């Protein structure tokens, strides 16, 4: 039996024993009081009788005047007075004894109650310290399933009062497209004050924002109503806040009696590169788990975590996870959750066939919300980013990089944050040391650095202590770094998709940004895809880039390479059977 179970049992037994003892002592107290009162009453009557006789004798003495009493009469009078005094004394003693007995009985009852209260308090303290501790240490830790998702969504009266023409204009201007198989129509939340929160204090984090982004405004009504949602929007469009607010708000809506002792919303982040033991301890009692597919699958396989109670499942950057070969891990994670009562969300920048297949397998009639005119979900760059491509000789990269750093980190722009991308870890280390030798404060993030060193470099860059950061593609996606003014692609990535996500580190949250890319003849096979991205974002295409041609290289199959023919649903022809005599 666990410590908490023993404490709870002791508290329960102590409370029951104290209640029984208190009742028994109370009955004894009543009986003692009644007996004492009866005995005192009898002695009081005897005393009154003796006193009455003495008074009679006294009156006889007074009436007799100077008449002297006989010897026997004087003795009788003396005995009567003694009896009177003794009766009064016995009555007082009996009363005091009765009061003392009552006080002793009450004292014992109070002591029993206090003992039971201490046991109950101790058990409650254990419960609060270990809110969801299992009965055995070998049991997997279960993610708390006390979130009450899928609350009935009620439209804010202020939003309901907005004219339909204004709502339609907002949808057209923000290029919001909704494909809902259930044919539900929700008005987008055009202002933060329309959020269906129960506590006004929950609006405080949005005080510095003007209006929700299009993906937030369109997705929130569906998410607050408990629907499965697929959100397709460009990088830096606020997708994280779109799925994060309904999740946290649903936990805050819980009644205290339903929280099972939890007094705060607990979130835990698990990922590779750090000790499993520390992360395993943090899983206990958590409400929200943010995890990478690899480390989460490790915990699932060893039985350290139980996802059967998950009610809010989010796949962020779903296309990226599948593109990097995590499809099997993602499917295992989803399969370990229960589909009953689960709300599944998928947010992505593109909408490839692999993501569509995953959504059709695990999601329940999801509403697909697309922002922009890219309804097909093809790769698009952020329209607010100015893209500049410089075709050059590889040997000129270093000198040109220093020129750009001096240009964009001088005068009033001295503290502007610049993110420099390299392709390989060794290259990132070399460039970081080169920039430092030129007198620029710089940090680095790549796979050869420890997790602690990467975290320290990223924090220093976010806080502005180090305005320059050299990184590999490990920082190309999912990182929300505020106020990045310029992104420099020192070496072009291996895919055009990675290029789009690299430059997406700037121009976030409605801000403008600039991306400068060095392109050499080594990457000429990617020129066609890059040209399409530039044209799709209405950016200038340099003549030197067009010389490489506009042919788009077919994306390589993960198993069969670049020459694999995807026939879709068309069955492949059977090979001709050849027999030899």
TrEMBL record:
InterPro entries: DEAD/DEAH_box_helicase_dom, DEAD/DEAH_RhlB, Helicase_ATP-bd, Helicase_C-like, P-loop_NTPase, RNA-helicase_DEAD-box_CS. Residues 140-151 have a biased composition (Polar residues). Residues 1-157 are annotated as: Disordered. Residues 220-369 form the Helicase ATP-binding domain. Residues 23-33 have a biased composition (Basic residues). It is found in: Nucleus, Nucleolus. The keyword Plastid does not apply. Its main location: nucleus. Its EC number is 3.6.4.13. Residues 82-97, 103-113 have a biased composition (Basic and acidic residues). SUPFAM superfamilies: P-loop containing nucleoside triphosphate hydrolases. GO terms for molecular function: ATP binding; hydrolase activity; nucleic acid binding; RNA helicase activity. PROSITE patterns: DEAD_ATP_HELICASE, HELICASE_ATP_BIND_1, HELICASE_CTER. It comes from the Eukaryota. The keyword Amino-acid biosynthesis does not apply. Residues 400-549 form the Helicase C-terminal domain. ATP-dependent RNA helicase required for 60S ribosomal subunit synthesis. Involved in efficient pre-rRNA processing, predominantly at site A3, which is necessary for the normal formation of 25S and 5.8S rRNAs. Belongs to the DEAD box helicase family. DDX5/DBP2 subfamily. This is RNA helicase. It comes from Polychaeton citri CBS 116435.
